[in-house]
């Protein structure tokens, strides 16, 4: 592909990646008057209906303009990995076969892990769920670093800062109660959580239950409170919100923020000329062009690119996300010496922890099929074509949430929150979402499958505070456009000390049992008139503890990859960052994104990322004074 050279430019700060981590930070730095360059591999998709319509949250992850297909291994042993029916084979570039029976010559790829390249990063294609972390998540970092500014009490201010520009709201209950079958599933879920309303007043009871806010600011026991809750979403009047809006507003209002889209950073430039000082990051090298990363299905077009560079007079901040941040650090000579040498990358700083400590949740569904369609989905084709009646309703009622219909929600309007018997502390560790979808994880075509008909309902679990920290992100080659090799090393192939793997596994099995008890409660609310259903997954054949454990081991997945350049204490050889997000041993370089956490925070991850980004802005601006 043609390559030209452009002249370099100079900024105070360069931020690589515009997701919840980088986008928030770059906007804050610019709003404080600093000349900032925000570099993003993707482009602006804020006018794309797949982005703005919450009901398209599945479709958007398959949109070629945003999507990066990253394939990961849950197990290194490929035979074991292929027990998962979601295992993917590539038959020709970006054409896939899912599950057993792949045609001859197909290449084994692993499990699809959706990622986004666009302004706002994965915050622009995610499921919109907004749940704050637990206090212990912050207090743990305070303990590890000895820095009390990480205490939960101090972190509140950053949470408030996020709320100053990011709008969140739950699904409007009136959208739900128009569908009595759905209402019946939800009240049954509340019953399984021990707070089911009286069947005679089920609908009013449900409306009241949906006032329960899992982010309650007034309940001092919020982190340990079990029950049935609404699900707050990054949404305003039924339209998606995210950091992409803050970035665009920051530019529009004239702050010194330059957003360079369609630009892929290939290397951090590091000056080693001062032999008496640590190496110092002074800028970045990049290639400007569309869809350059080979995870993009549009990279097959082999678009032209132009080489360029930019200088940072103060700092470079890497915010490429849990996979790309460690990859970029390694390509720039910062990472485990032995791995860098293997790829002939000159070692600038031997930091053993880069790309280790990868963590995620474990997720698993219980899916049923009703004999009749859900009313709420009538006319919804999820494809923005002229026949998509639900899109018309959404478009024709732009301001009143309750009138926008099924697309003014991500479909997962309520959740059971529980503390399993295997939780490591007093916090709740299971969240079980209910929604009219057929969701069984990520694989090519998952979105079409999830909404192919209107008869399915899913109770779907995320296990918080998982104990496995044995995942890795390693270079596949020294070519910056090659996605890295990602191994999660699930369950018994990962962290097993003190029975860690079994404790996580048993907790998830408990969640399946809770989901099934929610389904069993459905008939108690028969007055609502919902149709019968049959369980499809795990299915009636999967009953004993051993069968359920095998089911989970073979099919669980995650989508909150994190912790790959962790903050750690001075005496931790695997600590990559200090408590101020600084890369240890390299001046002028920080990481601000999902990678920074020593342990995966809370139940959902975007809220803690936005919060740490606000903190990082504070830290960086204080240092600049
Ligand atoms: C399908 C899906 C649904 C999700 N749903 C939820 C949810 O409902 N709630 C929740 O809390 N979390 C959710 N998440 C997770 C959450 O969205 C991510 O964890 C979060 O966005 C990560 O933020 P980040 O800033 O670390 O990185 P990202 O959001 O991944 O942003 C990184 C950005 O950096 C860019 N980039 C990377 N490398 C380079 C480079 N070398 N040069 C230039 N640019 C680069 C990328 O293009 C990207 O835009 C979901 C994730 C997925 C995949």
Task: Describe the secondary-structure layout.
Elements: E1 9-16, H1 20-31, E2 36-39, H2 49-52, E3 67-73, H3 78-81, E4 88-92, E5 95-98, E6 107-116, H4 135-145, H5 152-163, H6 173-177, H7 180-192, H8 202-209, E7 227-230, E8 235-236, E9 239-240, H9 243-252, E10 257-260, E11 263-271, E12 280-288, E13 306-318, H10 321-331, E14 334-335, H11 337-342, E15 349-350, E16 362-370, H12 389-396, E17 414-418, E18 430-435, H13 446-450, E19 456-463, E20 472-474, E21 485-487, H14 500-521, E22 533-537, H15 545-555, E23 589-591, H16 606-624
Parallel strand pairs: 1-2, 1-13, 2-10, 3-21, 13-23, 14-15
Antiparallel strand pairs: 3-6, 4-5, 4-6, 7-17, 8-9, 11-12, 12-13, 16-19, 16-22, 17-18, 18-19, 20-21
This protein binds flavin-adenine dinucleotide.
Short description:
Belongs to the GMC oxidoreductase family. This protein has 625 residues and is α/β, with parallel strands linked by helices.
Structure description:
There is one protein chain. This protein is α/β, with parallel strands linked by helices. It has three domains: 235 residues, FAD/NAD(P)-binding domain (3-Layer(bba) Sandwich); 42 residues, no CATH class; 228 residues, Cholesterol Oxidase, domain 2, CATH 3.30.410.40. Helix content is 26%, strand content 20%. It contains 16 helices and 23 strands. Strand 14, helix 11 and strand 15 form a beta-alpha-beta unit. Helix 1 runs parallel beside helix 9. The longest helix is centred in the last third of the chain and has 22 residues. The chain is globular and about 80 Å long. The N terminus is likely disordered. Bound molecules: flavin-adenine dinucleotide.
């Amino acid at each position: 592909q043609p390559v030209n050279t452009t002249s370099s430019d100079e900024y105070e700060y360069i931020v690589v990646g515009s997701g919840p981590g980088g986008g928030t930070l770059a906007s804050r730095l610019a709003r404080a008057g600093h000349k900032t360059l925000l570099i993003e591999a993707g482009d602006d998709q804020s006018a794309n209906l797949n982005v703005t319509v919450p009901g398209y949250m599945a479709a958007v992850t398959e949109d070629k303009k945003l999507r990066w297909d990253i394939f990961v291994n849950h197990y290194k042993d490929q035979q074991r990995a292929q027990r998962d029916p979601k295992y993917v084979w590539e038959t020709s570039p970006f054409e896939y076969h899912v599950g057993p029976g792949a045609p001859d010559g197909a290449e084994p790829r692993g499990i699809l892990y959706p990622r986004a390249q666009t302004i706002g990063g994965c915050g622009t294609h995610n499921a919109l769920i907004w749940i704050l972390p637990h206090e212990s998540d912050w207090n743990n970092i305070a303990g590890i670093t000895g820095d009390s500014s990480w205490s939960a009490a101090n972190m509140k201010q950053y949470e408030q800062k996020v709320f100053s520009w990011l709008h969140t709201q739950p699904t409007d209950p009136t959208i739900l109660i128009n569908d009595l079958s759905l209402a019946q599933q939800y009240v049954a879920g509340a019953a399984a959580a021990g707070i089911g309303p009286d069947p005679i007043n089920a609908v009013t009871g449900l409306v009241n239950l949906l006032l329960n806010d899992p982010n309650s600011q007034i309940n001092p026991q919020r982190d340990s409170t079990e029950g049935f809750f609404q699900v707050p979403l990054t949404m305003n009047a039924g339209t998606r919100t995210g950091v992409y809006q803050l970035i665009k507003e920051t530019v529009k209002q004239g702050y010194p923020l330059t957003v360079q889209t369609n630009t892929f950073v290939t290397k951090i430039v590091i000056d080693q000329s001062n032999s008496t000082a640590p190496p110092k990051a002074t800028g970045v090298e990049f290639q400007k062009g569309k869809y350059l990363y080979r995870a993009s299905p549009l990279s097959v077009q082999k678009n032209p690119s132009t080489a360029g560079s930019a200088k940072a007079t103060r700092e470079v901040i890497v915010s490429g996300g849990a996979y790309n941040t460690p990859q970029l650090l390694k390509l720039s000579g910062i990472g485990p010496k032995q791995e860098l040498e293997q790829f002939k990358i000159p070692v600038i700083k031997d930091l053993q922890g880069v790309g280790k400590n990868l963590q995620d949740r474990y997720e698993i569904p219980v899916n049923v099929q009703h004999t009749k369609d859900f009313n709420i989905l009538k006319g919804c084709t999820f494809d923005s074509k002229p026949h998509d009646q639900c899109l018309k309703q959404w478009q024709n009622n732009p301001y009143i949430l309750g009138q926008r219909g099924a697309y003014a929600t991500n479909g997962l309007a309520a959740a059971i929150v529980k503390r399993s018997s295997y939780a490591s502390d007093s916090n709740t560790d299971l969240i079980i979402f209910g929604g009219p979808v057929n969701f069984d994880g990520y694989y090519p075509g998952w979105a079409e499958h999830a909404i192919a008909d209107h008869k399915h309902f899913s109770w779907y679990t995320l296990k918080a505070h998982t104990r496995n920290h044995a995942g890795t992100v390693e270079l596949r080659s020294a070519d910056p456009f090659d996605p890295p090799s990602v191994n999660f090393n699930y369950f018994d192939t990962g962290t097993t000390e003190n029975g860690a793997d079994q404790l996580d596994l048993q907790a998830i099995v408990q969640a399946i049992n809770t989901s099934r008890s929610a389904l069993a409660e459905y008939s108690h609310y028969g007055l609502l008139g919902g149709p019968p259903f049959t369980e499809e997954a795990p299915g009636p054949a999967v009953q004993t503890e051993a069968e359920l454990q095998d089911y989970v081991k073979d099919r669980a997945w995650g989508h909150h990859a994190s912790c790959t350049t962790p903050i750690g204490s001075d005496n931790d050889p695997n600590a990559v960052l200090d408590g101020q997000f600084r890369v240890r041993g390299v001046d002028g370089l920080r990481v601000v994104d999902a990678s920074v956490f020593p342990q995966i925070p809370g139940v959902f991850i975007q809220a803690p990322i936005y919060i740490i980004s606000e903190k990082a802005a504070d830290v960086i601006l204080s240092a600049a004074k």
